[in-house]
Design a protein that fits this description.
The chain has helices at residues 5-12, 48-60, 112-128, 175-181, 193-209, and strands at 26-30, 64-72, 75-82, 87-93, 135-142, 147-155, 161-170, 216-225, 228-236. By secondary structure, it is of the alpha/beta class. The protein has a three-stranded mixed β-sheet with strand order 1-3-2. The protein has a three-stranded mixed β-sheet with strand order 4-6-5, with helices on one face. β8 (216-225) and β9 form a beta hairpin. The longest helix has 17 residues, at 112-128. It is flat, with a radius of gyration of 26 Å.
C-alpha cells in the first residue's frame, strides 16, 4: 500500500485550500463504480479534517492501491486506483485448528479486508462458546491467475464456564431476587461477554420495576481460575421512589 503522504500534500496544499474557501459544489469519486457514503457533502464548507477522514475511510476499505483528493473549481474529487480483483481458491485450517463452517465459498471475491472480517467472525463464534480469549489469524497466498488460497489458524485457548456469581454494594433487594434476574450468567453457563451485558440489563429492569430509578448496576470484575470464571456484579439501589404496584404492566 502506498504512503498517505502524497494525499496529505494534496489536501493541505495552499493552492487547493485557500483562506476563505467557499462551499463544496459537488463530490465525485473517480476510478471505481462502488458507492461510498462520505462525510464531505455538497453545500458544506471545505474542511480539512472532514476530507482527511474521508480519505482514511476509503483507504480502510482495503479495496484501493491509491487514494488521492483534489479540488476542481468548487468540486471535490477523490481519485482512487482499485486493487486487482482476486477470487478464493481453497480454504484450509492449520493442524491445531478445528474446521468451522464459513459463509464464503470457493470462487467468491476475496481480499485482505474480507479475510480480516472472516477472522473477526470466527473470533465472535469462539467468544459465544465461552472461549473468552480465542484468536483467529488468516493468511492469503497466491494460487494462480487471480486466485488466492485462504489459510486459517484458530487459537481457541481455554473455554470458561461460570463457577460463582456474587453481588457487592448496597443492593436494596434480596440476593434471591437478584439471582432470579440472571438468565445467562448462572453457574455452569459458558462465560460470554454479551451474556453478561444481557443480564446486566435484566438486573437494571428489576430495579426499575421496584421503583429504584437511580440504581447503579455494573460488572465489578471477572476473575479467571483454570477453566472457571467468577463474576462480581456491583449494585447500588439508591433511592426508592413511591410508585403504584405493577405500574410497569
Amino acid at each position: 500500500m502506498r504512503s498517505l503522504f502524497p494525499v496529505f500534500l494534496l489536501v493541505f496544499g495552499p493552492a487547493l485550500w485557500p483562506l476563505g474557501a467557499s462551499t463544496v459544489s459537488a463530490v465525485h469519486i473517480e476510478g471505481t463504480v462502488r458507492r461510498f457514503d462520505l462525510s464531505t457533502r455538497p453545500g458544506a464548507s471545505f474542511d480539512d479534517a472532514t476530507v482527511t477522514s474521508d480519505v482514511r475511510r476509503l483507504w480502510e476499505t482495503g479495496a484501493f492501491d491509491d487514494v488521492r483528493v483534489e479540488r476542481r473549481g468548487e468540486d471535490l474529487v477523490f481519485r482512487v486506483v482499485e486493487k486487482p480483483r482476486a477470487f478464493l481458491g481453497k480454504v484450509e485450517f492449520t493442524e491445531r485448528s478445528p474446521d468451522r463452517k464459513l459463509r464464503i465459498l470457493p470462487g467468491a471475491e476475496i481480499d485482505e479486508q474480507r479475510a480480516h472480517n472472516i477472522a473477526r467472525s470466527l473470533e465472535k463464534q469462539l467468544k459465544d462458546e465461552g472461549y473468552a480469549f480465542g484468536r483467529v489469524r488468516t493468511d492469503l497466498s497466491p494460487a494462480g491467475a487471480r486466485r488466492m488460497d485462504l489459510r486459517i489458524d484458530v487459537d481457541s485457548g481455554d473455554r470458561y464456564r461460570i463457577f460463582a456469581t456474587r453481588f457487592t454494594g448496597e443492593p436494596g433487594v434480596s440476593e434471591e431476587d437478584l439471582r432470579d434476574a440472571l438468565r445467562l450468567t448462572r453457574k455452569k453457563k459458558p462465560y460470554v461477554a454479551d451474556a453478561v451485558d444481557a443480564d446486566l440489563h435484566r438486573i437494571r429492569s428489576l430495579y426499575a420495576k421496584r421503583g429504584y430509578f437511580d440504581a447503579r448496576v455494573s460488572l465489578g470484575s471477572v476473575d479467571f481460575e483454570g477453566d472457571r470464571a467468577n463474576l462480581e456484579y456491583s449494585v447500588d439501589a439508591g433511592r426508592r421512589y413511591d410508585v403504584g404496584q405493577d405500574w410497569w404492566r
